[in-house]
Amino acid sequence: MTVTEIKQNIEKNPAIIRFGPSKSVFDLELRDLWLQRELLYFLILRDIKIRYKQTLLGMGWAILQPFLTMVIFTAIFGVFVKVPSNGQPYPIFAYTALLPWNLFAQGVARGATGLVDNAQLITKVFFPRLILPLAAVIAPTVDFGIAFAFLLGMMAWYRLTPTPGLLWLPLFIGLALLTALAVSLWLAAINVRYRDVRHAIPFLLQAWMYASPVAYPLSIVPERWRGLYSLNPMVTVIEGCRWALLGGSAPSWGLMAPSLLLVVVLLGGGLLFFKRMEQTFADVI
Known about the structure:
Elements: H1 3-12, H2 30-35, H3 37-52, H4 61-80, H5 90-117, H6 119-124, H7 131-138, H8 141-157, H9 169-193, H10 196-210, H11 226-229, H12 233-246, H13 253-278, H14 281-284
């Protein structure tokens, strides 16, 4: 019996107990999410195990990937192009930006395809579908933690110590996760119907990275364009992480406010769009 036939039987026989998503797009089913928190934990754990299953280096990839990217950026932008690095060693300058960027990029890449990757689970069992992109976005924090420990070792090598602004670091990391979740909700719902999303994600993330101050500082962006440029939430995240770890000028709240507002709008709209499309996930996927 198909999902459509089950729905028709339920409508004909109201005595049947209903199991399914709420029909209201404004019902985010937060209570159900809390009740299913154990499922969220196991999905995160499963994603971590699958990612490193049968790999030679295991979680060493969490360090190797940003490290090799840092080496390439250092050679191209630090040595040949001689991009300014706010008075910091360029390897540290680049690595402090790559960590939050990789956290965001992995969250988007996994979250956007999470529904399709779990198609068999969606069509067999009911649970709050929001758990899937949420688990996909949270799972990369393990990689971030490992790479962050390596960053502290690099800073000790260069005789750099974190600033008191380090206390603000969790807020900037939280903003990166919220941004990844907001983008993932839109892309995951669209990807159920149009599988082009999977092919577009690598290009989207590559373009987004170069539109963010990963390999270069915000200071090289012309003053008249900084307001528009700072609408990118990752500008706030990256500049905030650099300030929290390396010091320097604190991020401008005037430039941060529009990006924070944009994240709120994207997240709110993404939740409503996801809930609206959720009714058809099992039929279309």
